[in-house]
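Handout, section 4.2: multi-component inputs.
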Amino acid sequence: MPEMQETVREWLDTGKVDLFLGYKQVEGHPLPYAFNRDNLEELQDLTVSEARYPLEKLGAGILAVQPELKIGILGRDCNRRALNVLAVHQQITPGQMEILEVKCCPSPLRKHADCSSLEPRTYGSVKLEVGIDNSMPTARMEQFDQQTRFDKWLYEFQKCLKCYGCRDICPVCFCKECSLEHADLVETGGVPPEVPLFHLIRAVHMAGRCIDCGLCEDACPVDIPLRLLYRKVNEIVKDLFGYETGLSLEQPPLSILGEGASGVTDSHRAAV
Amino acid sequence: MGFLQELFKFVGLEGRLRLEWISSAEATKFVKVVTEFTEQIRNLGPSPLAKGSAQPLEDLELPPLPQAAAGGGCGCAQTGT
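Output:
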């Protein structure tokens, strides 16, 4: 940890970044915090833990107001993918944010991962029987017959409290006007929200956007297997268009409009 | 469209979505497609999402609780939440 604090100090000192978004240990809790040149002594409380917040989203929000800033963030592979997606959708300019990478993925050398979502949770017998085991691969889900698949998703979706936690925590959800709050698209004033429309709208919007960070599922108070749903969505995008979300600065196939759009081949058109 | 059909399939709603390009000159194709699709939908039966037909959470048939959990715990498993 001291090495990391030194690196951040150096980044701030040399002007490589003006702000560093990381986590500060406050009374035992790691909270997202902006370290800057005026509070260098606070760097001793910079911490790395399982706690994850969409720091790149917070950074993009700051850059929207003060685009001249350079921001460093503590991040993992998923944060890098999120930055690519934010750049693709012109929420940031590539290079405005610098990632100080911490390890996340388990390896033979490192069985335990920092990333909380990599440790499958254990679920109760009812959820496993009637609903969906969130750690299930998409291929397993597809093996159920149509009725079972439908019932399982309905069971999961009906638990929704419409807290918008999945959207609010999502590092790549940045729209000012959200379809999920549009009265013409989703009926207002009831819980659960229109099933399965509410979740399918979000699923469609995650196509070519979701970077599989798992924050939505972490945030969901009722354990809806959102990650499984969005993972499938991006498998479809990959199968149909050969597009891998977050790995490049290439435009996603679903935001390309019109005949003259570059990068769209006849096979893409057939798929749409 | 291919994307939406795949997504519908994943959540168990396959067969209810179709897109066809039909020119105003292709009357026979229009008739054929509409008849075919109507027949397909009729075979699938009423939409499981039609108002009132969705099974409320309380009515779901829950599996029997395992012996160990049935006696104690907070009771939340019994209500199925």
